Amino acid sequence: MQEHTQLTQKQINDDLLRSVFTVPRWWPGSTLILLLIFIAGACAFGYMINKGLGVTGLNRPAYWGVYIVNFVFWIGISHAGIMVSAILRLTQAEWRRPITRAAEVLTVFSLTSALMAAPLTHVGRQWRVLYWVFPYDFARGVWPNVRSPFVWDPSAVMTYLIASTLFVLICLVPDLAIIRDRSKGLRKKIYSVLSLGWRGTPRQWKLQTVAGILLSALVLPVFASVHSIVSWDFAVQIGPEAWHSTIFAPYFIIGAIHSGVSAVATLMVVMVWAWGYKTYITPDHLDAIGRLLIVVAVTWFFFFFLEWIYALYTLEFGELAMRELQVFSWPYGALFILFLFTAFLIPVPMWLFRNIRRSYLWMFITTILVNIGMWLERFLIIVPGVIRRGELMFNWGTYHPSIIEILMVLATFGWMMFGLLVFSKIFPLVPLFDVKEGMVGRDEIKIGRRTVPASIRE
Amino acid sequence: MNSISNILNQQSILGLFSTEDSAADALDALSEAGFEPKEYEILTGTPYPEGTFGEEEPKHKLFRFPLIGAACGFIIGLGLTTATQLAYPVVTGGKPILSIPAMLIIMYEGTMLGAILMTVAGIVFESRLPRLFMGAYSPKITEGFIGVAVTSAPEKIQKAEEVLKKCGAEEITSGQDTTE
Q1: Which among A8, A172, A214, A205 is positioned nearest to B50, based on CA atoms?
Q2: A380 near A334, Cβ under 8 Å?
Q3: Most C-beta atoms within 10 A of its C-beta, which of A2, A209, A419, A432?
Q4: How confident is the model at residue A391 (pLDDT cuts 50, 70, 90)?
Q5: What distance lies between CA A122 and its chain's CA centroid?
């Protein structure tokens, strides 16, 4: 870090709890709009339940459409929290401090969006999901088929959701104590219960520090399993040949990290613009995440390249037909070009420039582009895969998402952002104790004729 | 009975310090004045490196929790996958009823879930939370002051107050905490 700002604990509390104790002018209107978007999606969902899946664009053979695209997309975004929080925590990267909580909360809400996207909307008969997944229906004697990826999937996603939520809650306790100490009346009583009687003893701090590291280490293997299992939904099923790829698991994971870390960068900029955290999220932080994004994006592109090479080198009919559909047919060809430019060709060369990496506006634009591209990537894997005319097929067609599907896709975006805004009103989005800990070990040291900022740790 | 009544009769006092050095001096002075380490504790609004105030290193057994949780999760995962397949035995392609690779995936998730749940339980338990009574505490601690809380017999509290004052306590509060 190049910048050195030394703040007192009171200043940090004042700055970072402003969103909890006051209502920003933009907050009610934005929250209401997002809630309305979510309600519109919920109404569309109700209509679909009433009328059946016929109101969507899904058909034979396009059984999988934007619901599954959205599911994979949100699972990808959810990898943000763990990548930024757990890995940077384990490697003791100083610049993680102001952004870990936002990244973890992004994980939690994007996972709930993912659950809305697939199990809730896609399956058709939602009321049957429970006994497809959980072995509870003792009267029937019919149990979940553990050989199916659709049972592996919920077990991984639910584990990840529970782990991420608990991770957020455990790391919140010291900050809840600060809100408790600053509150009065009913709010004080509520935060007293939530903070569990936290006092800040050395024992509690030690456990908090160990908890961060231990939970990071435990969530990381879950993080790797979740997107691997999502990729196996495609790779192990009897379906499109182009999905039978051994590279799918790592390819999906790195794609998830690419979109997830980009989403964190977008959120960092939004936190500066909306909540005014400019003192805490500085151009140095954007610079650091920009460098990380270059590495992640290039690695992702390498896997993307390998996936294509393996597909083309075999010269198998199914693979070639699918690639032809992806690249040379309308509208997929145009979407493929848009995907390539937005996910890689525009943002990565731009991130090579320091001024771009340190610009809030440019980082916002480029990281939004990445997520447009990564949504399209999932669309281009799924839709051309299912609509391709295969052997012994008795009907085939194309796929256009209906307004019902579009409303429900928008609802997942509305829900995630609504959740973040409501969270920011109840809990601090920046971990106060983590920022304060960074301040304790921060100083300026003189080397020769220069004074440089330094972070000291054990 | 005597020891219980001694605990019930104990009083608390809290001294607030603005610098790490003065708080560390207060702990040294309390020790020199004959107070046991269990009679005083340091309260801060931010984590400091261990031993900053010369306090004893807290011991914990947190690392046992994830191991126990992982073992329980593994057994539950194994039981669920085995029982559900045996309860509805469908032979697929002449293969064995128990599909080990598929079971491994759910057992893995069960193991990790068990480890994580027990770790969280362990963190709460080892942090001695939830705490129903705050004891000597001040909201100024989360604003940057460093608190030295002394809990001892009533006859020793006067002495503790003198020590805290001498070491530069900016504010001394006695009795129960001021947040409740």
Answers
A1: A205
A2: no
A3: A432
A4: confident
A5: 20
Q: Indicate the residue of B109, B120, B179 with minimum beta-carbon distance to A156.
A: B109
Q: Say if B124 is an interface residue toward chain A (CB within 8 Å).
A: yes
Q: Does A187 touch chain B (CB under 8 A)?
A: no
Global pTM value: 0.92
* Residue A317 pLDDT: 84
A129 inside 8 A of chain B by CB? no
- Supply the CATH number for residue A187's domain: 1.20.1630.10
A211 near B CB under 8 A:
yes
Confidence grade of residue B180 (pLDDT, cut at 50, 70, 90): very low
Structure-block tokens of residue B126? 């080892």
Domain range for A133 is 64-401
What are the CB-based long-range contacts (under 8 Å, 24+) for A284-287?
A: A284/A1, A284/A2, A284/A3, A284/A95, A284/A358, A285/A95, A285/A98, A285/A99, A286/A357, A286/A358, A286/A359, A286/A360, A286/A363, A287/A354, A287/A357, A287/A358
Amino acid in position A36: L
Structure-token match 């879930």, residue found: B113
Q: Which of B119, B124, B173 to mutate to test the interface with A (most CBs of A within 10 A)?
A: B119
Strands B171-174 and B11-17: antiparallel
pLDDT at A458: 67
- Domain membership of residue A198 (yes or no) is yes
pLDDT of residue B148: 95
Q: How many domains does chain A have?
A: 1
Residue B142, min C-alpha distance to chain A (Å): 6
Q: Which amino acid would we find at residue B52?
A: T
Indicate whether A40 belongs to any domain. Answer: no
Q: Are residues B55 and B94 in contact, defined by beta-carbon separation less than 8 angstroms?
A: no
Q: Flag whether A147 is in a domain.
A: yes
pLDDT tens, residue by residue, B107-165: 999 999 999 999 999 999 999 999 888 889 999 999 999 999 999 888 889 999 999 99
B91 — pLDDT class (breaks 50, 70, 90) = confident
A126 Rama sector, left if φ>0, alpha if ψ -120 to 50, beta otherwise? alpha
| A57 domain residue, yes or no | no
Decide if A208 and B112 are in contact by the 8 Å CB cutoff.
no
- A199 CB contacts (<8 Å, ≥6 apart)? A177, B43, B131, B134, B135, B137, B141
